[in-house]
């Protein structure tokens, strides 16, 4: 598992570099309309949410219960 | 303090028009990205129930990493394309016509010419998409060996080309130069061929910056 986490961290560093360059471009060359900053905020909010959700899933010792919750929800829809 | 849109903008140079490609140009990227998001959601919420083997300790952890990477890279792919779209602009000022193209993350191209080099401006709309969304291409033909400027997928191309010609006419009146041909969209009665370099601006709308965003105009209609 440690190897996979290491690969994951390396990929995340590449991702962060990419995101950093894009953020720099928006902040450096933004024009008076506010859509650049708005999209930047949405992007980072979405990315942080994805990071947090994946971290919660991986770090949970009883992670099996999480899919079970979704399973019970879907079963309740079926009646 | 005046906002500088590009490096060589003079302090007394006002921006008349800022043009971007219409958002409809992003639709193919948006479609691909949406498809990948749907695949990611299926991987996250459907496959674990369909394939119980995925929901076991080690495999599940790896699976979560893969799914999160799908979401992360799809998000940054979408944002990357949007940034390139956002930073590709054409700026018309009272003195210059400038096209700034962010080709890639580390590649940026700035093309600039004075308005006296503008010879002709043409707008074209081809096909169903162009007609439905009132988008098209605007070509600015230039004098000499300067390559032509072609703006693709511009909202309201006829309005943009007319604005360029009007600004060029005003520039020529101010500076007493004229290299372009006659413009069908400009009232040539005000231009009598007598040039005077000390002539003040005759069109008051260029004395104050009035930036327009054609895409926004279209959305409000």
List the helices and strands and how they pair.
The complex is a heterodimer of chains A (about 80) and B (about 220).
Chain A: H1 2-29, H2 35-59, H3 65-78
Chain B: E1 15-20, H1 27-45, H2 47-50, H3 57-86, E2 89-93, E3 96-104, E4 107-114, E5 118-124, H4 127-133, E6 135-142, E7 149-155, H5 157-175, H6 214-220
Antiparallel strand pairs in B: 1-2, 2-3, 3-4, 5-6, 6-7
Helix pairs in contact in B: 1-3
Brief write-up:
By secondary structure, chain A is mostly helical.
Descriptive key words:
heterodimer, A: mainly alpha, 3 helices, 85% helix, B: 221 residues, alpha+beta, PH-domain like, 6 helices, 39% helix
Structural class assignment of chain A: mainly alpha
Q: Element order, helices and strands of chain B?
A: EHHHEEEEHEEHH
Q: How are strands sequenced across the largest beta sheet of chain B?
A: 1-2-3-4
Indicate the percent of residues in helices of chain A: over 70%
Estimate the global geometry of chain A from the Cα principal axes.
elongated
Largest sheet of chain A: none
Mass-distribution shape of chain B: elongated
| Unreliable sequence segments of chain B | 180-209, 217-221
As residue ranges, the low-confidence spans of chain A are: 61-66
Q: Using DSSP, what is the number of strands of chain B?
A: 7
| Gap between N and C termini of chain A | 39 Å
How far apart are the termini of chain B? Answer: 32 Å
The radius of gyration over CA of chain B amounts to 24 Å
Order of helices and strands of chain A: HHH
Q: Of all protein chain pairs, which has the greatest interface, and how many residues does each chain bring to it?
A: A-B, 35 and 34 residues
Coarse structural class of chain B: alpha+beta
Overall tally of domains of chain A: 1
Share of residues in strands of chain A: under 5%
């Amino acid at each position: 598992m440690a190897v996979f986490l290491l690969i994951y961290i390396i990929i995340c560093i590449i991702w962060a570099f990419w995101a950093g360059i894009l953020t720099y471009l928006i902040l450096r060359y933004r024009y008076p309309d506010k859509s650049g900053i708005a999209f930047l905020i949405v992007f980072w909010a979405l990315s942080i949410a994805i990071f947090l959700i994946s971290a919660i899933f991986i770090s949970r010792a009883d992670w099996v219960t999480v899919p079970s919750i979704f399973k019970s929800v879907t079963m309740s829809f079926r009646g | 303090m005046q906002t500088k849109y590009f490096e060589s903008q003079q302090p007394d140079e006002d921006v008349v028009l800022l043009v971007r490609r219409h958002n409809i140009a992003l639709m193919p990227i948006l479609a691909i990205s949406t498809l990948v998001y749907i695949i990611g959601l299926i991987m996250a919420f459907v496959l674990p129930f369909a394939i119980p083997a995925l929901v076991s300790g080690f495999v599940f952890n790896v699976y979560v990493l893969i799914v999160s990477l799908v979401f992360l890279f799809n998000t940054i792919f979408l944002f990357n394309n949007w940034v390139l779209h956002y930073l590709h602009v054409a700026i018309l000022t009272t003195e210059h016509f400038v096209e700034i193209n962010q080709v890639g993350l580390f590649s940026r191209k700035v093309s600039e010419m004075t308005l006296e080099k503008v010879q002709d401006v043409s707008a074209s709309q081809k096909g169903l998409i162009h007609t439905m969304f009132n988008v098209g291409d605007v070509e600015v033909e230039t004098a000499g060996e300067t390559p032509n400027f072609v703006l693709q997928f511009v909202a309201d191309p006829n309005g943009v080309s007319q604005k360029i010609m009007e600004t060029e006419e005003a520039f020529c009146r101010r500076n007493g130069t004229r290299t372009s041909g006659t413009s069908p969209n400009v009232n040539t009665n005000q231009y009598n061929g007598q040039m005077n370099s000390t002539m003040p601006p005759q069109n008051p709308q260029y004395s104050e910056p009035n930036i327009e965003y054609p895409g926004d105009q279209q959305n409000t209609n």
